[in-house]
Amino acid sequence: MKTNDFISNVNHFSKQEIKSFKDFLLSPFLNTSKSLVVVYRIIIKDKDILLKLDTKELRTAIIRRTKYSETTVIKMLSELNDLYALFAKVQMFLKDKVYGEYLCCKYLLAEGYYKSLEKRLKTFEKILNNKDNLDEEIFLRLYEKDILEYDILSTKADNFSPQTKLEKQMEHTNNSSLDLMVFTISKITINFANYVIQCNDSNEGKNKDYPVNMERLFEFINTSEYDSYNKFQKTTIQIFLKAYKLFSNPLNDDYYKDYKGYYEEIIHLYNLSFRRTHHSLLLNFCYMRQRIQDIKKFYQQEALDVLYEYIDNEYYKNNITDYLHPAIFRNYVINCMTYDKKEDLEKFVTNQHDKLNPSESGIMKTFGMAHYHFLNKEYKKSIENAKLIIRPKVLYRYDIINLMIKNYFEMGDFVSVEKYLPNYKKFIDTDSYLTKNDKERYRTLVTIMKEFIWRYHKSFKDENVFELEHLIEIIDSKVSFVMKNWLREKVTEIISDFYSKHPKKKKK
Which of 95, 93, 87 lies closest to 106, judged by CA? Predict the structure, then answer.
């Protein structure tokens, strides 16, 4: 419902956004209803209700203070949500100065305001030359600028001779074509890299070909036409060529070194957005390599290093938000958990949690410390912290359940472990976000964990661990499932501990 959407949005407003949206509502040009301002002020004062996301309680508070009917309040909350959508468009226009200036120029051209357009076009050119705007997107903006200038020549009456006008139009056509080619290469390569990762994570996608012939796309580098590109365009093409080679040959470590080395060599030429893009590609490649082949465990530490640098240098910032996304914070925590990096985890949670949106900072710090206490073998503290996270979001719901299972497992409380399994399976079956492959990986964990509990009790009842030894074989037969390595290690420890206490029962 729109009312729920608006309340959820307000709950994530920063202090500046709370003020900016109020100023937006006070503008008679954008909002003609003064009563909406009254309702909004009531909403932002009821922080306790907002945090609970209790729509009914909030509506009751508004009705009590305004004397409006419930129908009127529901309608007003819906109107506020529609106005928030408009507010978001205005904010986007103001924050993205490059695209905002382009849209302004397009409007002036369409209305025929050529004198104003001439001034705005100079401002647009100045913005395009600003180093803060140099990434792969700049080539689309440069393309758009040339098309604007082409359209001006085509529609504006001027003193150019027909031949001069034609030559200028040809120049704009050629320039726009070069920039569009660089932009296309960059975006298609990013899509290709994402597709390789997706195919790796999906059994259904592994035999599907990418719909663009990437080798053919890059063939023009060896033609005379390539000489038409300037140095900056060629540098951009080269970094994406190296990215393509890496993702088309993911098991070749030399391609990783070549791509990362060239990226570090040219990074000073580009802006924060460019660094964010390529750090993300490096990071996602590291994750993929861990899944398919990382015998020397190089990509484990590499992923942590790349991700920490990404966060520490604030590459996550863009023209929409200054805040670190909780999914990125979560990924670092889980990687530290997976590779037993408790010192790194404590340092990270302490130093980086305040980069999250204030509404997320406290709960994600608790999330991080719950995992730190587990690594520090403080299982009760870990459980206490995990229980503070009420109604965990989808992006870390399973992490919390996995952590609770691990804590109780380490404490030997298999009764509590078993209690979590029915709800775990219910979440998996009804989850619309998980892929078919992911669902299978989670369901396998539930099945294997049930098998473990049954075999554990039977083994110690019969005073042998044959059933658990057979479980190891079952675990090994599975290609992959959630917490596979951890569970195998724990079952192996139980078997070893049994034989250390009953050496005579060990097989010869």
Answer: 93
Core vs surface per residue 437-466: b (16+ CB within 10 A) or e: ebebbbbbbbebbebbbebbeebeeeeebe
How many whole angstroms separate alpha carbon 440 and alpha carbon 204?
13
Alpha-carbon span 164 to 166, nearest angstrom? 5
**pLDDT of 388 above 60:** yes
Cα–Cα distance for residue pair 156/147, rounded to 1 Å: 14
CB 368 within 8 A of CB 353: yes
Q: Are 346 and 316 in contact (CB under 8 A)?
A: no
Spatial separation of the C-alpha atoms in residues 37 and 379, rounded to whole Å: 49
pLDDT in tens, 131-170: 888 999 999 999 999 999 999 888 887 767 888 888 999 9
Cβ pair 250, 288 in contact under 8 A? yes
Identity of the amino acid at 305: D
Phi, psi for 401 (deg, rounded to 5): -65, -45
CA-based torsion, 272, 273, 275, 279: positive or negative: positive
**Residues 247/193, Cβ–Cβ less than 8 Å:** yes
Taking all residues of the chain, what is their mean pLDDT, rounded to a whole number?
89
CA 77 – CA 71 distance, rounded (Å): 10
Q: What burial letters (b/e) apply to 12-30, b meaning 16+ CB within 10 Å?
A: ebeeebeebbeebbeeeee
Q: What is the DSSP string of 26-83?
A: H-TTT---HHHHHHHHHHHH-HHHHHHT-HHHHHHHHHHHH---HHHHHHHHHHHHHH
Three-state SS annotation for 219-239: HHHHCHHHHHCCHHHHHHHHH
Question: Three-state SS string across 273-307, please?
Answer: HHHHHHHHHHHHHHHHHHHHCCCCCHHHHHHHHHH
Q: What is the pLDDT of residues 92-131, one digit of tens each?
A: 888 888 888 999 999 999 999 998 998 999 999 999 988 8
Residues 6+ apart with CB under 8 A from 473: none
Amino acid 1: pLDDT: 45
Q: Whats the size of the chain, residue-wise?
A: 508
DSSP-assigned beta bridge partners for residue 216: none
Confidence tier at 4 by pLDDT (50, 70, 90): low
> For residue 15, what pLDDT is reported?
79
Buried b (16+ CB within 10 A) or exposed e, 110-142: eeeeeeebeebbeebeebbeeeebbbbbbbbbb
